[in-house]
Amino acid sequence: MFESPANPETVFTYGAPQLKFGSGSSDEIGHDLGAFDVRRVLVITDPGIAATGHPQRILEQIAGTGIEARLFDAVHVEPTDVSIAEAVDFARDSGPWDAFVAVGGGSAIDTAKAVNLLCSNPGELLDYVNAPVGKGRNPEKQLSPLVAVPTTTGTGSESTTVCVLDVLEQHVKSGISHPRLRPTLAVVDPRLTITQPAGVTAACGMDILCHALESWTARPYTSYERKTADQRVPYCGANPIGDMWSEKAMSLLAGSFRTAVHHGDDEAAREQMALAATFAGMGFGNAGVHIPHANAYPIAGRVKDFRPAGYPDAEPMVPHGMAVSLTAPEAFRFTFEASPERHVRAAELLAPGPERPSDAGDLLPRVLTDLMRDIGIPNGIGAVGYDEGDVDALVEGTVKQQRLLATAPREAGEEDLAGILRRSLELW
Ligand SMILES: NC(=O)c1ccc[n+]([C@@H]2O[C@H](COP(=O)([O-])OP(=O)(O)OC[C@H]3O[C@@H](n4cnc5c(N)ncnc54)[C@H](O)[C@@H]3O)[C@@H](O)[C@H]2O)c1
Ligand SMILES: [Zn+2]
């Protein structure tokens, strides 16, 4: 496993935005913005979501309360440094803005976080991106209020302190992570999620599931060396509060995930998925994620020509949630020995029932692959275009994600990661 700390950590932290949840909650955003004393707001979304009419309806509702509101609808699905710079230029040129409202999935919410950062602080995007990709600078000034309105049931970005982006020139995914990036208010209205295509619901739902599972199985916060006050980071490792949100998210998924994919108009299932996404966001936003997310970066970043159903087909992509899920069964087979009881408990939460394989280590991988088959996730990284010859390059990409690998409950070296990736070429 890992070395026992000489001076074990005794402290964990919990942070979350204000939250308004439920059907109809997005009809009150104009009123909610009033509390922040704002006059001009920029509503940020992507073209696919704009086509559903949700952002325009929210904009009109805001304008109806006397606040000037304008739409930016050119967010790139899975944002890049270039797409974010365009959004920032638009916002800086048309500003100043008193607040931002992000309507969309992780792509729109993350873009809005970066726009807010760069409209409140000097410099350029890469100044703030995590080192070594960027300069890792901390935002010195307070950001403006950001209201995050998720339309996917997935990332939990409305709760987290992170913005994820593709840095095109360096061919890597990286991020900006700072407590100031956390949205001020999350407005989660399950009605907005009903228009998600089935393929988006499936990939985003696997993201929820992996957020919950990875934080539930993460290295415990007490297993680290004690930090000083100025060394504390939002991701503490598994802790009692993160555990609570993660367990509840898994139970909610057990009752709703397959239905939400196959019967997208089932409002009860959509509501449970929205709750699960929010709960998992509050869990992993404080505990952290590990091997499946670390692998997802190169799996998404080195895409060849895979084009998933339900997503814009202008460019090849392996969507975030799908990329995360493809190595999850084998990653949890690998981490099983670090905490067998947690892996078994997670499988029981996700698939309550009497049927059990004789090998306990096989239980969670089997629950995951059964689910992935049922909801149409591709059969392993082979099915999205990778083969044996790509494994070394993927490992190289994964080992760069040291911040995530440091949260794994078992140390994963290059050989271990290559084994996980190789066994994930075909899952069933
Ligand atoms: N900040 C975080 O904490 C965090 C966590 C996980 C992932 N991410 C990032 O979030 C991004 C992925 O976000 P996502 O999975 O939420 O999806 P997304 O925002 O990329 O959207 C996926 C697709 O679904 C469409 N769509 C979204 N909602 C819809 C709706 N209600 N009706 C119809 N179409 C809809 C979009 O137009 C888009 O084509 C990635 O860049 C990922 O790296 C961020
Ligand atoms: Zn994720």
Description:
- This protein is of the alpha/beta class and 428 residues long.
- The protein has helices spanning 29-34, 47-50, 54-63, 81-94, 106-120, 125-128, 198-216, 240-262, 267-287, 291-301, 320-325, 328-335, 340-350, 363-375, 391-399, 402-405, 414-423, and strands spanning 18-21, 40-44, 68-72, 99-104, 146-150, 162-167, 172-177, 185-188.
- The chain is built from 17 helices and eight strands.
- Strands 1-8-5-4-2-3 form a six-stranded parallel sheet, with helices on both faces.
- The longest helix has 23 residues, at 240-262.
- The two termini are 29 Å apart.
- Nicotinamide-adenine-dinucleotide binds next to helix 2, helix 5, strand 6, helix 7 and helix 11.
